[in-house]
Amino acid sequence: MNDTVQVTGVSKSYGELRAVTDITCNFGAGETVALVGHNGAGKTTLIKLMLGLIRPTSGTIRVLGEDPSAGQFEARRSLGYLPENVAFNMALTGREILAFYARLKRVPLTTTDVLLERVGLDTAANRRVGTYSKGMRQRLGLAQALLGRPRVLLLDEPTTGLDPALRRSFYDIVDELRTDGATVLLSSHALTELEGRADRVVIVDNGVKIADGTIEDLRRIARLPTRIRVKVIEAPDLVDTWARAGGWRRINGRLMEVEAGPEEKIALLRSAASPDAPVADLDVIPPSLDELYAHFLSASREISE
Amino acid sequence: MRNLMIVARKEIQEGLRNRWVLATTLLLAALALTLTFLGSAPTGNVDVPSLEVVTVSLSSLTIFLVPLIALLISHDAIVGEMERGTMLLLLSYPIGRWQVIGGKFIGHVAILAFATLLGYGAAAAALFATTAGIDDASWIAFASMVLSSVLLGSVFIALGYLVSALVQERGTAGGIAVGIWLLFVLLYDMALLGLLVVDQGRIVGGGALNALLLANPTDVYRLLNLTSGDVSALSGMGSAVQQAALPAGALIAALIAWTAVPLTGAAVVFARREL
Questions:
Q1: How far A67 CA lies from chain B's nearest CA (Å)?
Q2: pTM of the predicted structure, to 2 decimals
Q3: Which of B17, B85, B94 sits opposite A87 (nearest CB)?
Q4: Which residues, 6+ apart, have CB-to-CB distance to A126 below 8 Å?
Q5: Which domain holds residue A233?
Q6: Where are the domains of chain B?
Q7: Which residues of chain A are modeled with pLDDT < 70?
Q8: What is the CATH number of the domain that holds A170?
Q9: Nearest to A199 by CA among A211, A210, A183
């Protein structure tokens, strides 16, 4: 497998505080990974380690084949980074700032105009960054991360401060990069937003990796029940029988709900969909990503206690 | 090398944009012109003075003002960018930390050099236009005063970086910068003078005095500019010259060392720092 980022047994302590403990994970080309955890769970520390801004206490990191903290910069030219709270010098204009970063990455200055247009800053390009709103600064941050067709993108809470329309266009850009074969790491504390965006989810809590896999994998591991909701045809006595049989809960009038584990799900659906079942309508609600996230968090905390 | 120039260019761009360059140049020019045309009053006449007098007045101005300006520009350079969060992004780019410091240094020295050359140059031009028959030796003394002023500025820029790399907060850096200015510009010389008066030449001999003078960059600058030729008679440094006989080359080397050591120190400290 063509791994662009390899993190092997990495720990990082600040004195007594263990920010990251023994994390191992590899990310491949063309993969979009969501790094999820509470604030202070170690997401930003992990990203800084991948950037080589801090050195691991133990373990090794390879980004595009290089040790990021060794002081070689070949790999950094193909690396894009958007910090959590992106900041720029207020006195310069958006275009000047982007040109400065383009020079450092040895990217032709002609590409900066294209990028500014892509993030919707072309009209504000000649204004001082001091006059920009939070969302505009975030977009300028995204533009600099996209300089020079990056192979690895590390985006720390990228959508904070973006309105829904911009958020969508942001994810469009991420999709393009994925198609282009770039590794995109998105950190977030809200998993729901990443549904359908990320190929893979890595959950960290207290500096420890507690889950790693596709959303489907995680669902399978968590074995969270799927909610099946049916609307029955007018037949109150039947409803009572079901309710007594167990599992089914009456929500209101003719609406019934059951929480089905992975094994019983199909059997339940078959019986509900059989020709003689008095069912008018049927909804299957899989566990939401937030429920999934909460499940893994509480599971890991039970173990540690 | 290219990275150094890219960073230096950005520093100059910022300096121009936030009016640092303009303010410093105007301040130095205004004070230099004032001293040029009014500075001869203490010598008893109100005519346009000789270039020697101007050189002496401007070097005294430099000793107070240039270290202050240099520390103001530099004390914020590293800790300020860290606090604002711009350093985090910059260091994720293909650039070494020593290149960040080196580039900033080139940019800041360029700003200071521009302000000094233009500010003091204005005084020289005014004098040139109004006075005839200034000899070459005086012009050379003036030119070397201007160049060594830039060198003195670079000493304090490097010291400012060292402070900026060491501390955790901008406020601390500002406080220490003021302390450094007070120490080197005011307190050190007072203490040295006190020591010499008390000592009466019993313990502190010529060699020890040389060492004590070299330990303060503003004294090195003073020795360099106020002890040569006609100027020394005007500056009241004559008695010090007799005791402290240091060649100009050694003094310039001392100023360069005073720049290189703190700058290297700042780069070493910054390289080890974690963000």
A1: 13
A2: 0.85
A3: B85
A4: A93, A94, A95
A5: 225-286
A6: 2-272
A7: 1, 234-246, 304-305
A8: 3.40.50.300
A9: A183
